[in-house]
Structure prediction request, 795 residues.
Amino acid sequence: MSFEPKIVAFLCNWCSYRGADLAGTSRMKCAPNVRPIRVMCSGRVEPDFVLKALEAGADGVLVLGCHPGDCHYLEGNYKTMRRIALLKKMLSQLGIEDERVRLEWVSASEGARFVSIVDDMTEQVRKLGPFSRRNGGSDG
Amino acid sequence: MEDEVRIGVYICHCGTNITGTVNVEEVAEFVKGLPAVVMAKTYIYMCSDPGQNMIKEDIKQLELNRVVVASCSPGLHEHTFRQAVQDAGLNPYMFQMANIREHCSWVTEDPKLATDKAKALVSAAVRRVYHQQPLDVREVPMTPSVLVVGGGIAGIQASLEVANAGYKVYLVERDPSIGGHMAQFDKTFPTLDCASCIFTPLLSAVGQNPNIELMTYSEVEEVSGYIGNFKAKIKQKARYVDEDKCNGCLVCVEKCPWKASSEFDEGIAERKAIYTPFAQAVPNVPVIDTETCVYFSKGTCRACERFCDPKAIAFDQQDKEVEVDVGAIIIATGYDAFDPSAITQYGFGRYDNVITALQFERLCNASGPTSGKITLKDGSEPKSVAILHCVGSRDKNYHEYCSRVCCMYSLKYSHLIKEKIENAEVYQFYIDMRCFGKGYEEFYERLSNEGVKFIRGKAGEVTDLAINEEEQGKLVVVAEDSLMSAMVRVPVDMVILSTALEPRADAEVVARMFNISRSADGFFLERHPKLDPVATATGGTFVVGCAQGPKDIPDTVAQASAAAARALAMISQGKVEIEAATAVIDEELCSGCKICNLLCPYSAISFDEEKEVSVVNEALCKACGVCVAACPSGAITGKHFTTEQIMAEIEGVLV
Prediction:
């Protein structure tokens, strides 16, 4: 049996969570590997949350927010954009593939986009293989 | 934690919506093994009264102090269950929901995988609720007034409903007069009521209502605040006519020698540089179009000023900015008509007698430029007219959606042409006839008996290249008659394009300003397509009419009244509950670095110079959590989304 990755997704309450709801309401189908966690704004996602997810058994992490300019809290997603960029840089310095973490924008009307991101990320992480916490460090 | 944590977990079947793929009994068995879980039950409909009563009973009998319901999206029923636990004496924030329907059973095919995912989602909720703390719901006073944006039939109806209930309305309209598209119409389908006869009394009623502060030629520039306490900055453009002095005699309009194309008449007639859009304009105060007025370019003329008895012309008038406080906002900004020049094969702009639906509406209107006489560009009467449906609608190149009103207004036009021009030939080129409303199908039936020719097929081209004698000097509509499976060429004198209704060109800017979303088609997104069709995701902000999607006048009016009722229900309470999940700073941990001060998009964090710590103003905090994530000292707690709670949830989803 092929490797089934576990992926944690942080969804902002206003756009992405509703986009995911719409995928459900529209009975679209997506990979069951992605496990959503609701936060009010993608700007609430601390880099620590991503690291915690990787440490606790996730093979990949998705952070989903409102499209630039559409943030319910005006500009929270811009902060996320900067944080995730720095975090990815740090991950690669630690020898962790930065493709394990992905930031995407999904609006409340983009159920189909949510599904395609989920499927795509699942495929991407499946190709990367299981995240080895033992070898994930600098000696990787 | 002083008291023992006792969690009750309820797993909803949602009929077969969840049980169709998720084995709920297996999930319940799994949950029973989680720490602090006292009981786990499944039930067919948790949101029903028996479902809610079960929770309330168990809270009392089993001394539960935390509750998890695994069912649908919290957007749908979080409020329901919070209320239920509150009724049983628990703090509403001691409740957590796991979304195993939208995020699980509905999106997963394989029952085994769906059940596994449901277990993970419920386990996350259980672990999270363990750390949840009671919070006080805060109440703030509600400003008892409503801002209505847009003065078409939707905005007018909503304004009158609110004003008639005794509350203050600020009605903001971009154009010099209220009225919107409906004021342009001649007759309305299917009853053929004269639009002016039913509409102008409403315009006057708005003008005369003491509770409505009408701001025409004005635009909302900025909106801040939240449900119950919005502030809107409105720019009132200079009319260059003093509204207090003007008596509406319109001698100025008569004397003005300068002309421009009339927006209200859709470019088929001209208006003066000083003008009111139409005769029954409200307010009946003209505006000066500074682009056309020679005074503004050369400093000369001043004819209007000379002939104005009450001395109302005010060339030195400036734009004004006013700020209003409102409790609720109703957005009724309407639609734009699709510009058919994009579809070059129909020849709009190339052939004089290819016109849009709204142009025909003006041409046919007794108060229009031809006094209601249907004429060709050269003034003669058309003997044959083709009406092309779905121009820009139901077309993947432009808009996929159906504009919903075009079939019906096309039928209306057929009737009006037949009525006004003896022996006129009318052809309808349609894809499907969509006559869905009350009395609509009957209207279609009636028109079929009036000798209108229906050709099922979308027109491919309109051309003036004649291939035979009969086509000489005519416009030829080329189409496939899909019922006959044959190409047809129909020579006519006039072609009317039934153009799509599309989102306003600035819908994106407006959505951003009011903090609402748009659906994929570009129209404003309602909170729920079925159960909450006029609310938006932003509390206290409603959308009505064609701004939410194409619709006819009856539906628009119904929505407007619905939104007014919702707004009234809110503002009449006098107070509103606001988010309890704000950020709070621990003074002991705060290092005074001020990073959070700069990050907060609402300027809700200030610096206490004396104590050298940052302080959150809870009334301004919207609970986004941006500061919480940024604080290098970990001094800020985002209530109800604490780091501890989210970390527990992360562990939970990864079981």
